């Protein structure tokens, strides 16, 4: 009888040891991102920010920005061969880090799937999303997100072959009878079905697991037309169009509106302001011709708004809880809107000119309120 | 290495051939009896050969097609292996790997008795490889012709222009030479060791494997493969940037460590410390996954002031005071007082944890853990009442446990200086292997305990284990993983966070343990009643009966299922991708195709990943077959 007690105890002992090691494991990654103060490290439990405290203070005491990205969105956030994160969205994460912490490299990138992104914000795993997330009414209200200024205006388009009689001026009404392919489980599927029924044409809609598969089926001829966000189509055309074929993207006016920008939890004005104005700063800098290479000269010789924006006078940034030179660091370390755009999106064939992403002075939609 | 006279070896072998072994057949005879014995058999043989030929051709044309972008895999070798692990910290990975390699060599030296491989058979292997290469060269279709700009030339009808068969063969002259060299070497070996007296000359398999690994490492010094550097979209393969260049030195050191470990093991095996070294190497294997975890994932910035003022004294206090208390509790005259003391300790320890949840009074977490462990040790104490040696077992064991727990707890609480740009600090094959090893190591004892619980005589244990096993087995692995990664954080008290990886490891271990328990239970049920009765008859206690009689036999019987479990645990780590971790498969499936340079390049990576999965599982499977033969499974 006594020996059985021993076995029971051994079992419990092992269970406890296991639980203890599991809890221990949890701290490992928390600490690796936490600042190295030995007081914080002493207690195993990390104290949560008291309710009412802004995420802005949390980030400043933590020392890193946890930024949710896709990690597999060509030109927006892609994991490079050396494991670093690159792309348009990744750079905007760096913009936020440069503004809040003064160091564009203090970003902890978290790759999220489309399904888990909002949960990650709600549970506090990430501070904000730069994960090509479309600003919609339901997400803004029901889902409990707030959206920052749009950084990229996207829209769903279609791509067909010129040899099938399509051209840049084709319309949805022209695709009757075609096999149209897209990736499963996204709104693109619904959009194209709606657009086709509105135009009064019947199409055969096929969906595949991801857009790589969709494109491969387009190349092999199984699909006549593929559809997704215009930015992705341009990239595919630039990289994957075989010799001797001519792919065309249409209609000129996309069949859906997909404004993409920073997304964060609602009701945190201090943090929202910091993110929004970091984005606006890149846009204003573009408008004023301030680039990462001439920012030092502009700080001395620019117009009053530029100098104000870069922290040369006034206390605009300090008033919102940011360092006075926050936006100077943004431009210096990451660049203005045009630099960020051309760095990631030009190589895949996306140009600003003539698109909605041109500056408002050039007929586009990229516009920022004044810094004063 | 001591050399044995080849002739005496051969004679020994000759004696070992049992009289009822099948008679040797010539090649022609073998073909006639096995492949072309009747017309139906002949048709099947021809159809099978045709299918194999077409498959080989398909695979070759796929692999060597001009459309394949193998540069995507070469460039991303690093991402496939470790993803975001910082380059400046790679030395930790090498230290960890070196430790494992040396330990593997040591164990092989102490334990392995792999026997030898007849050189004649080695010759046939070389001939086979050479022949296969020649066949591949012949079967692959000729390459597409390209113009000076690298664009494919088309025939008038619009299909791709290919070079002539003769030109293709001439292009592949290097392959032909390789095939001929291998084949020729094989023939030379084979014919030299074919005569009756030389037929049974063997080489130890260990040295063949060692030389094989050595040759593979030597290629790193010769072929600069695996470049990953980019410059404005063009790849650069300058010295120092290729995987081969940056890993040739470490791998050579690994190779040397393997050899040194093996020699040390051989030496220990023949020395009088053999038992101790066997126990020691087993212990090292048990500790090493966790120890290496700290080496690879953390770069502790130890605050020595804090260590000296708090951590060390606390560890010493728990270790020594606990040892003193246990020494008292194992006195033979302690009686009922010991139980009361142990119960009081347990109540206090549990109260500490309750207090922690309500935040009543602050206490270092490791003090709580140590206290709880002490309470359990005190409850165990009555089992160690007896002579000094027995009491010393418990006390020394306690000190060992405390040293380990306090070391690990101190390391956990020390901030890491590893500068990681991203949460995916570990990914790729590294993550896959890491999760697989930890899950297998942790789920094994848990599974055995569950199996014992399910076959126990105590209804409460039986019910608990059965319901646990049934609940877990009734739920798919994906939902367990999602539960642990998404739901569990919501139930945790405020301020407590569970890292994704820890959550996954916990969930996966609990899942795997349930399946393992069922496999072990199968083994337990195969133990006849007589074994139990015999154990009781010679006066073994229940624990001794389980530990010495029942479990060894039960585990032996369940080897095939247990290995199956290990293999499936390894493969199913690919489900980690669903909850957002970047395992090996996900890097190939979604990271590489998302890079601007390699947009949509997916098949190449997936093929490589599949081959590596296969390699690991094949080795595990082969090893288990060997193990089964050694313990005589299937021969009863």
What fraction, in percent, of the residue positions of chain A are helical? Answer: 40-55%
Rg of chain A computed from alpha carbons, rounded to a whole number of angstroms: 24 Å
Enter the CATH topology name of the largest domain in chain A: D-Maltodextrin-Binding Protein, domain 2
CATH class of the largest domain in chain A: Alpha Beta
In terms of per-residue confidence, which ranges of chain A show pLDDT below 50 for 5 or more consecutive residues? 13-51
What does this protein structure show overall?
The complex is a heterodimer of chains A (372) and B (636). Chain A contains 15 helices and 15 strands. Chain A is an alpha/beta fold and 372 residues long. Chain A folds into two domains: 55-152 and 259-351, D-Maltodextrin-Binding Protein, domain 2 (3-Layer(aba) Sandwich), CATH 3.40.190.10; 156-256, 3-Layer(aba) Sandwich (D-Maltodextrin-Binding Protein, domain 2). Chain A has a five-stranded mixed beta sheet, with helices on both faces. Chain A has a three-stranded parallel beta sheet with strand order 5-1-6. In chain A, helix 4 (88-101) runs antiparallel to helix 14 (326-333). The model of chain A is unreliable at 13-51 (pLDDT under 50). In chain B, the strands form two sheets. Chain B has a two-stranded antiparallel ribbon with strand order 1-2. A two-stranded antiparallel ribbon of chain B has the order 3-4. Chains A and B meet through helix 1, helix 2, strand 2, strand 5 and helix 8 of A and helix 5, helix 15, helix 16, helix 17 and helix 19 of B.
């Amino acid at each position: 009888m006594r020996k059985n007690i021993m076995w029971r105890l051994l079992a419990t002992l092992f269970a406890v040891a296991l639980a203890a090691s599991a809890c221990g494991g949890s701290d490992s990654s928390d600490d690796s991102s936490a600042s190295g103060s030995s007081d914080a490290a002493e207690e195993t439990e990390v104290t949560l920010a008291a309710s009412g405290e802004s995420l802005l203070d949390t980030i400043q005491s933590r020392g890193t920005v946890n930024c949710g990205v896709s990690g597999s969105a060509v030109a927006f956030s892609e994991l490079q061969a050396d494991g670093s994160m690159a792309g348009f969205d990744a750079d905007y994460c760096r913009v936020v880090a440069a503004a809040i912490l003064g160091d564009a490299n203090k970003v902890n990138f978290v790759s999220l799937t489309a399904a888990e992104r909002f949960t990650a914000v709600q549970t506090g795993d990430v501070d904000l999303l730069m994960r090509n997330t479309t600003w919609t009414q339901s997400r803004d209200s029901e889902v409990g997100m707030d959206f920052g200024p749009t950084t990229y205006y996207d829209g769903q388009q279609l791509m067909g072959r010129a040899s099938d009689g399509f051209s840049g001026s084709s319309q949805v009404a022209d695709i009757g009878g075609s096999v149209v392919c897209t990736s499963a489980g996204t709104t693109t599927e619904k959009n194209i079905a709606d657009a086709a029924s509105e135009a009064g044409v019947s199409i055969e809609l096929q969906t595949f697991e991801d857009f790589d598969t969709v494109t491969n089926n387009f190349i092999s001829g199984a699909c006549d037309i593929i559809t997704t966000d215009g930015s992705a189509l341009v990239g595919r055309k630039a990289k994957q169009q075989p010799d001797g074929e001519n792919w065309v993207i249409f209609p000129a006016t996309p069949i859906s509106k997909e404004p993409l920008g920073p997304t964060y939890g609602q009701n945190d004005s201090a943090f929202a302001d910091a993110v929004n104005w970091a984005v606006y700063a890149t846009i204003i800098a573009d408008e004023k011709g301030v680039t990462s290479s001439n920012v030092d000269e502009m700080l001395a010789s620019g117009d009053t708004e530029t100098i104000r924006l870069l922290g040369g006078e006034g206390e605009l940034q300090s008033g919102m809880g940011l360092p006075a030179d926050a936006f100077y660091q943004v431009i210096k370390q990451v660049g203005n809107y045009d630099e960020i755009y051309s760095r990631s999106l030009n190589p895949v064939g996306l140009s600003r000119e003539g698109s909605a992403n041109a500056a408002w002075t050039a007929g586009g939609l990229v516009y920022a309120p004044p810094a004063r | 290495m001591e050399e044995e006279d080849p002739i005496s070896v051969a004679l020994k072998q000759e004696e070992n051939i049992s009289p009822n072994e099948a008679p040797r057949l010539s090649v022609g005879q073998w073909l006639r009896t096995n492949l072309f014995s009747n017309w139906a058999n002949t048709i099947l043989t021809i159809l099978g050969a045709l299918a194999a030929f077409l498959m080989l051709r398909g695979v070759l044309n796929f692999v060597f097609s001009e459309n394949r972008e193998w540069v995507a895999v070469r460039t991303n070798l690093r991402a496939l292996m470790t993803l975001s692990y910082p380059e400046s910290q790679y030395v930790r990975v090498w230290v960890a790997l070196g430790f494992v390699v040396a330990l593997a060599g040591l164990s092989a030296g102490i334990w392995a008795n792999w026997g030898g491989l007849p050189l004649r058979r080695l010759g046939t292997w070389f001939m086979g490889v050479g022949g296969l290469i020649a066949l591949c060269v012949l079967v692959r279709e000729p390459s597409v012709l390209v113009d000076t700009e690298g664009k494919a030339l088309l025939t008038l009808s619009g299909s791709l222009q290919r070079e002539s068969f003769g030109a293709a063969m001439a292009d592949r002259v290097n392959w032909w030479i390789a095939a001929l060299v291998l084949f020729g070497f094989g023939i030379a070996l084979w014919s030299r060791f074919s005569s009756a007296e030389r037929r049974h000359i063997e080489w130890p398999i260990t040295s063949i494997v060692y030389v094989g690994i050595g040759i593979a490492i030597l290629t790193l010094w010769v072929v600069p493969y695996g470049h990953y550097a980019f410059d404005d979209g063009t790849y650069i393969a300058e010295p120092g940037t290729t995987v081969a260049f940056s890993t040739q030195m470490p791998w050579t050191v690994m190779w040397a460590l393997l050899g040194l470990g093996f020699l040390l093991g051989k030496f220990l095996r023949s020395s009088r410390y053999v038992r101790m070294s066997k126990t020691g190497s087993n212990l090292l294997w048990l500790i090493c996954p966790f120890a290496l975890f700290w080496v690879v994932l953390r770069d502790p910035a130890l605050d020595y002031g804090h260590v000296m003022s708090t951590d060390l004294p606390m560890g010493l206090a728990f270790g020594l005071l606990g040892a003193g208390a246990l020494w008292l509790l194992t006195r033979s005259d302690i009686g009922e007082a010991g139980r009361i003391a142990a119960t009081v300790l347990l109540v206090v320890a549990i109260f500490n944890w309750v207090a922690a949840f309500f935040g009543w009074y602050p206490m270092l977490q490791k003090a709580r853990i140590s206290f709880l462990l002490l309470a359990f040790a005190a409850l165990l104490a009555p089992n160690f009442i007896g002579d000094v040696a027995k009491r010393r077992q418990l006390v020394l064991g306690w000190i060992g446990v405390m040293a380990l727990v306090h070391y690990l707890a101190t390391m956990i609480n020390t901030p890491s200086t590893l500068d990681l740009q991203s949460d995916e600090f570990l990914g790729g094959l590294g993550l896959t292997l890491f999760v697989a090893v930890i899950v297998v190591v942790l789920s094994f004892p848990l599974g055995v305990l569950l199996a014992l619980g399910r076959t126990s005589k105590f209804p409460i244990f039986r019910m608990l284990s059965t319901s646990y096993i049934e609940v877990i087995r009734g739920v798919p692995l994906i939902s367990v993983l999602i539960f642990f990664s998404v739901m569990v954080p919501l139930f945790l008290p405020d301020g407590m966070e569970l890292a994704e990886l820890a959550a996954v490891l916990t969930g996966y271990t609990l899942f795997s343990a349930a399946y393992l328990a069922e496999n072990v239970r199968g083994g337990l049920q195969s133990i006849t009643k007589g074994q139990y009765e015999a154990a009781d008859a010679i006066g073994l206690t229940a624990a001794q009966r389980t530990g010495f009689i029942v479990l060894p036999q039960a585990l032996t019987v369940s080897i095939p299922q247990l290995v199956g479990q290990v293999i499936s645990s390894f493969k199913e780590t690919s489900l980690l991708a669903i909850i957002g971790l970047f395992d090996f498969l996900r890097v190939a499936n979604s990271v590489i195709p998302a890079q601007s340079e390699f947009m949509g390049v997916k098949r190449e990576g997936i093929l490589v990943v599949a081959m590596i999965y296969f390699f690991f599982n094949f080795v595990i499977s082969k090893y288990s077959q060997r193990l089964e033969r050694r313990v005589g499974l299937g021969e009863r």
